[in-house]
Amino acid sequence: MSQEPMRPPGAPGAVPPPREQPTEPGDEKPYPKPDQSAPGPRTATGREVETQPDARAQAGDRLTTAQGVPLRETDHSLRAGERGPTLLQDHHLREKVMHFDHERIPERVVHARGAAAHGVFRSYGRASSFCCAQFLQADQETPVFVRFSTVLGSRGSADTVRDTRGFAVKFYTQEGNFDLVGNNIPVFFIQDAIKFPDVIHAGKPHPDREIPQAQSAHDTFWDFVSLHTEAQHHTLWNMSDRGIPRSYRTMEGFGVHTFRLVAEDGSTCLAKFHWKPESGVHSLVWEEAQLAAGIDPDLHRRDLADAIESGALPRWTLGVQLFEDGDATFEGIDLLDPTKIVPEELAPVQPLGELVLTRNPSNYFAETEQVAFHAGHFVRGIDATDDPLLQGRLFSYLDTQITRLGGPNFAQIPVNRPHVPVDDMQRDGFHQQGVHQGVAPYRPNSLDGGCPFLAGESGFIDVPAPVPQSSKTRDTPASFSDHFSQPRMFWRSLSPVEQRHTVDAYAFELSKVYEPAIRERQLEQLARIDSQLCEAVAARLGLPVPSADLGADPGPVESSPALSQVGGRWPVAGRRVAVIVTEQSTGVDAVVSALFDEGVVAAVLSDHAGDVRCADDTVVTAERPLTSARSIEFDAIVVGAGDEQLSGPAAESARLMVAEAYRHAKALGFWGAGADRAAEGLGIVPNEAGVVLGPEPTDVMTEIIELLGGHRCWDRDVLAGTPVG
Ligand code: HDE
């Protein structure tokens, strides 16, 4: 009996001949299946918007309800008379308030506070011999979306808290989306994903009073890390300057785990990913970070958006350290242990391409909040290893989106959509956007002409990596048990000023711990890392140094110079300098031009905002009054001195600003006839490191820009605590 084939609804063209057997891929495509991606972007009124493809509402010429009904009124509810009760009949009121009531979605359980930007990744084309991923081949440019974050704080917490920072990059490649979901610290607190809820519960606010917010300086955090010695390495990085970055633009990023790369010929190698910021790795000083948390809790968010808007585009180089695939060890380091790094001196970072952030999101919620990263979003050529932390993450990220984004269709949200056709067999579910065609969302099928076909050789490669011959176990390998030699290496790689900051941080954090036993236990762990570090912190806490019979692990103690972040010179574009002027100043234009020429943002400040007529008869426009500016906004401060100095509230603000910048080792400049007197008037001793004085504005600015290139003037480290190192 012959049977008429069923025609897939909406399918173009003639009905194909019936197929009794499932079809195989081939040149002849019997029935092109209609595109099954989510519907194209439309405004609320159905028009396509070219520049912002996903813009919705506020674009049409008429206000409408969510159903597209034009409205003539939206400010007054429908009432029974001017002073009467509101009527339930007011469907617009009901819809408007209903939608508002549900505007909030659950924040991320970790990394809730973030900022993001769009950009592009340009491959140098040097990976083809070891990785076949399309976006790493020659002449490839790939759009990206990058989200930076803190870990512990809520969505409204401050940017500058001491914490790890997330560094998550979504590559919209031509072979689907690849997410590199990394951090600014190359190691993690735990070696096994099963402990993630524990370390996060310990770091989050105490469950009884819900304090402290976005802090590690409390009992439960230090209780956990002092008991889980594998957490000591990551904790030491957090206590170093890496825990308080100056800006997202000045952070390194790390994939943390070891990944497996596959070449076109099927050969494999292991790799660790690194992001190197082209403007250098810079940090805040702790006092500055604390001030910023109150004065400008959005410091990092603002800095990122302003830099992109001003054209000082943030840039990073993506690099890899490569290792032979095999037993996943390198020079005695277990590559599956995420609490270990491989020093760059042993395995150099090979550059693969450049990331440039070019565009701010146009809607925070739609993009930054709804972006869904997943450590398991791999593409052809990149695969997982057996790192037990990575393996657990492969489960967690999909799972969390179901709660956070309300169902399994989050890949259809505009920011998450791949930039290639999606031809999957996923159907239905909450918030389904696709109007899928066809009747056979299964394989094999004959009804939809066998579509979609399998990709064959061009599909994702599951590396047939050998599985260890073993019994099921909850044990960890012996190679995971050395928890101290790498923190020791990190500590010994820091410069004296970085070591001092680290001691200060431990002293600050542990002095906030109420339970004496926890302070003492953490000191014991420090003793196992380095005796000088332990002694310096113990002295600050007024506690005895733990006895030496702690069985310190032997291990390599060499230092890795690449781990220190001071001592170099970096581009100054995108830095911010306060230019303080009075009516007595001269040469302000020359100062502003000198900064502008280097891409530095100059903020002119005076005793009032608006026009200031200077002594050389030029008129400059002050952006703000001094009374509403603070040092933490700026990387350097320069003052246009005249015969008379500032007085009143503006003078007090200038004095505070200059004093803070002095304490925080920032460059200070004074130009003009009365430069010496101006400096002294603001409490600064001339001839100190990082203080530049002179009559000529251009000479002073040349030196200031030179100092900015070194980031801070550590020769004038007035906050230095107990000397160590
Ligand atoms: Fe995450 N992590 N994580 N993490 N992680 C999340 O996913 C998790 C880990 C990282 O900007 C969550 O969508 C587990 C390491 C970043 O949206 C969640 C484990 C590294 C972001 C989650 C880890 C990271 C997250 C929360 C241990 C560095 C923010 C919301 C096995 C390599 C991404 C979400 C963004 C976010 C789970 C460990 C980086 C719950 C279970 C190691 C940058 O799925």
UniProtKB/TrEMBL annotation:
One record GO biological process: response to oxidative stress
Domain of life the protein comes from: Bacteria
Cross-link 3'-histidyl-3-tyrosine (His-Tyr): residue positions: H374-Y397
The EC number(s) this enzyme carries: 1.11.1.6
Record-linked PROSITE patterns: CATALASE_1, CATALASE_2, CATALASE_3
Cofactor: heme
Substrates-to-products reaction catalysed: 2 H2O2 = O2 + 2 H2O
Database matches in SMART domains: Catalase (SM01060)
Purpose of the protein: Decomposes hydrogen peroxide into water and oxygen; serves to protect cells from the toxic effects of hydrogen peroxide.
PANTHER family: CATALASE, CATALASE-B
The protein's name: Catalase
The organism of origin for this protein: Aeromicrobium piscarium
